[in-house]
Amino acid sequence: MKNIIIWFLSSSLLLAALPAAADSRTTERHGTNTAVSLKSNKPQMAGVQGYQSHVWFHSVDVFLSGDLDSNGYYHRLEVELDADTSERYQQVFAEFSLLPTYGGERLFYTSSVFELYRDSADDWLAIDTILENRFAADEYLLTIRLFDAATGYLLAEISGFDDANLDLLPLEDYGRDSYVSSTTVEVSGGSTGILLLLALCLVLWQRRNTHGAG
Length: 214
Fold this sequence. Notes:
Blueprint: H1 2-17, E1 24-30, E2 51-52, E3 55-65, E4 76-85, E5 90-99, E6 106-110, E7 114-116, E8 125-131, E9 138-148, E10 154-159, E11 169-171, H2 174-177, H3 190-213
Antiparallel strand pairs: 1-8, 2-10, 3-4, 4-8, 5-6, 5-7, 5-9, 9-10, 9-11
């Protein structure tokens, strides 16, 4: 019995240590790269923000795409943010999460470290996310947080509670969006099938009588 308990605990710890399947797949780009920004120019400053210190969000742009089943819910989420700082130079990283209508907030991506240079328009961060699984069709609230890369302290936060453009995002994962239900086709013989069956029976009956008479 003792060995069974030890085996069970060891198996549980091993399963807990195994990495879970990814819920999303994200790529990121930085303004310091040679990639072209999604924005043509620097827009006006973002509105009310949940929290800000010497770092704040100048703008946040959201783009939705990928609706394979045409139900109005998208599996691809692109976000581009431009943040500013009152400091000459600040290293930060960003966290992105989605909150469904019912249930808890779900972190889907943490960025690499990137730099902010006062109010520069060239220090933007863009992420491109494919929601893979575990995101039911729903209207989600997006939250973005910026942290100090050296200390991990929260520096700025903005969400759908502050900006309506980050709320009520119609999203679902790729697994649900690409799902095609199977269709069962029922074939009925109808009156034509019945007549063919009667004709076949008649032929067999005639053959039997012919052989019997011979």
